Amino acid sequence: MKLLTSLSLLLVALPSVLGDSSGQLVYPCTDSISSFDLGCDPLSTYYGCRCTSNIFISSTFQCMLDRDNNIDHVEMALQEYLSYCLEYGNVSVTFDEMYDTYKKDLAAHNFTNEADLKNKTAPLTTPIILDPVTLGIAIDTYTTFYWEVYSGTLFGGIMMAYWGAVIAIGALINLIQHIAPKYIMSFNSPSVVKFRQAFTIPATFGFKHSIPMSWMKIFSMATPTRGQSMALLGYVILNIIFCLVKFDLFLPNTYYDSYHMQLCRYLADRTGIIAFTHFPALFLFGGRNNVLAWATGWSFDTFNVYHRWIARGMVMHAVIHSVAYSALVTYTNSYKAEFSEAYWVWGVVATVLCCVILGQSMHFLRSRFYEVFLFIHIVLAAIFMAACYWHCATLGWLEWLYASWAIWAFDRVVRVVRLVWSGFAKADSKLYPDDIFKMTISYSQRWKYYPGSHIYFHVMRPWGFWESHPFTIYQHPDPSQSDKLILCGTAKEGMTRNIYNDLSKASGSKNFSLLLDGPYGHRHNLQHYNTCIFMAGGIGVTATYAYAADLVAKADMNQHIVFIWITRHESALKWFSEEMEYLAKSGRCTIQMYITKSAEPVSDTEHSSGQEKNSDSDSYNSPMYSITRGVRPDAYELVSGHIRESNGNTSIMVCGPPTLNDTMRRCVTDNLGNAKGRVDYLEEAFSW
Predict the structure, then answer these.
(1) Are 636 and 663 in contact (CB under 8 A)?
(2) E strand or H helix at 499, and its extent?
(3) How many of the other CB atoms lie within 10 Å of CB of 65?
(4) Which of 139, 203, 280, 513 is the least crowded, having the fewest Cβ atoms under 10 Å away?
């Protein structure tokens, strides 16, 4: 335990001595002399003993002067060591006092050569002159030990630099898409098509991206796209490599007398530090106000994928760190004794917490109990970070924690600023059949809506006002109310169910007072496509409508727009009738609506100019607006046909249930080469 404690104290010096000749001068000497019995009081501390031992002081001076006879260099090298005498040994001693002690022993010829010691395990009675072999071993041990510790910062930094490179590539592509979209559109050669079909659009394994892969109905995971997986593969490979390479094990060793102990210590230190280097990216990628999202144009969903995988990497390193240290202290028979050390206890707490957080973040739990998951996630993360602080309060590497706290604080402050800047909003809310509610929001107009944007809102009520939920927003279709925003939602659990219950109690209509946090989200630039196909399922129509409405409002744009909506219930014609009529009246949009659940025993395709008049939408006369009841279309074949018939460059935007999204992903992948121009797949999804 004494050895582990002394080496833990030595870690404190790492930030200032690493790569510094002062550290190279002093610590091999102090380490070598500390390997002898100095006759310390068993109750004294590591520095308390050494900073008051004349034998240690004089021996250290002699060793340092043998290596560098410049007394100024010796004084400089010892200054930090003297500060530890006071901080960790409660001993106030100056350089001059130590130097005087050395000179007295030197004048009295009190020094003994190490080679002349008859019993090297007996307590020293005089200062010693180290044998060159002993000192050489100490120098090699010191150099190796601190390299292995430094490797944690180095390798962790490389991994974060890797993510920086991934972000830079994403930002560059996003920039080119904005300033030279035609250049991007020109990339449509057969080789490019094959590359996109193989490496960018599909999911990692087949086409299950929105549909989670599951095992035993409990363990499930949303599979990244292949483009995301390529970035993740590089990260995983780096994690594996940096856990396996560059361990310089040798005997004899000043610190450890076995290869096993050396490997445990070096692996523990490296992985513990690498875990800390993950914190800033972990907080940044999981935050709502992520400046990198603006730079890259990536969705929250993409950053959330990376956030989860970085968290898994961090937990892996933390567990290896803890297991390796546990193996080390078990080998030295000091496992129980280590629990008397605060840093050890807090390290155990931090490791257990991060494992609990990882388990609590399983897709099975967060997708079913998101509000509960989020609350517990934040609380446990705060306790975890506090435990990490107390674990390393005396060891260092707190800069990684400070950076993470700054990122977290920035995100929270910006949220508050957005709420205050937006001010209170009023939402005229109505309840519709099949658990649908719709809010028409009058807000301050201090920020502007754009297609692809979403907001988080807080309902001002005595209980639950702190809850927020993301909703896609779009502009009111009535030109006289274009200053208002609309959102639609389906009552499920948590906040949406509470809104539904409030509306039910108010006979289906109620005004809510809201605070709006937004807008968030990236806007896809669709104006450079000749054909724009929108495929929506259920409530996902709000996302595709926002883009379609924006396109039809631009009279100067000569685009072919196809709007497809698949929904289960006839009631959709009630709560979304104005929006559908707005698209139909433009005369620029082909609308195909499929109501899969119908009371009619037989269904056929009928145009809204045609046969039924039992809904406002049906009564609008347009040959470009068709409604099909009682049939679930083959979405794959439907969109494949539109792609083959499209002119020029084509975009396919989809927002719907997981099955529809993955079907469209497969459809677009298979048809990349079947259009007359480039085909792009755009998915609007907000997955937990």
Answers:
(1) yes
(2) helix 495-505
(3) 17
(4) 513
Q: Give the per-residue pLDDT at 20.
A: 55
Contact 36, 55 (CB under 8 A): no
Considering only CA atoms, which of 542, 287, 289, 546 is closest in space to residue 421?
289
Q: What letter would DSSP give residue 652?
A: E
Can the peptide bond before residue 470 be classed as cis, meaning omega within 30 degrees of 0? Answer: no
Beta strand ranges found along 462-521 (DSSP E): 469-472, 474-475, 484-490, 509-520
Per DSSP, the three-state class of 467 is: coil
pLDDT confidence bin for 396, thresholds 50/70/90: confident
531-605+624-683: which CATH topology? Rossmann fold (3.40.50)
| Beta strand 679-683 pairing with 650-655 | parallel
**Tens digits of residue pLDDT in 454-467:** 999 999 887 778 88
Sign of CA dihedral 398, 403, 408, 409: positive
**Domain 423-520: homologous superfamily in CATH:** Translation factors (2.40.30.10)
What is the Cα–Cα distance from 137 to 132, expressed in whole angstroms? Answer: 9
22: its two tokens: 């002062």
Note the helical H segments in 423-481: none
What does the pLDDT look like over 483-537, one tens digit per residue?
A: 999 999 998 888 889 999 999 999 999 999 999 998 999 899 998 999 999 999 9
DSSP H or E segment with residue 198: helix 190-199
CA 148 to chain centre: 27
Q: Where are the alpha helices (DSSP H) in 257-299?
A: 259-277, 279-286, 291-296
Cβ–Cβ contacts within 10 Å for residue 351, how many? 24
Q: Report yes or no: 491 and 544 within 8 Å, Cβ to Cβ.
A: no
Contact (Cβ atoms closer than 8 angstroms) between residue 172 and residue 199: no
CA distance 46 to 40: 9
Cβ atoms of 607 and 635 within 8 Å: the answer is: no
- The pLDDT score that the predictor gives to residue 21 is 63
The answer, as to whether pTM is greater than 0.90, is: no
Q: H-helix or E-strand containing 241?
A: helix 226-244
Per the model's pLDDT, the better-predicted residue between 82 and 615 turns out to be 82
The answer to whether 106 and 129 have CB atoms below 8 angstroms apart is no
Pair of tokens at residue 541: 């129509």
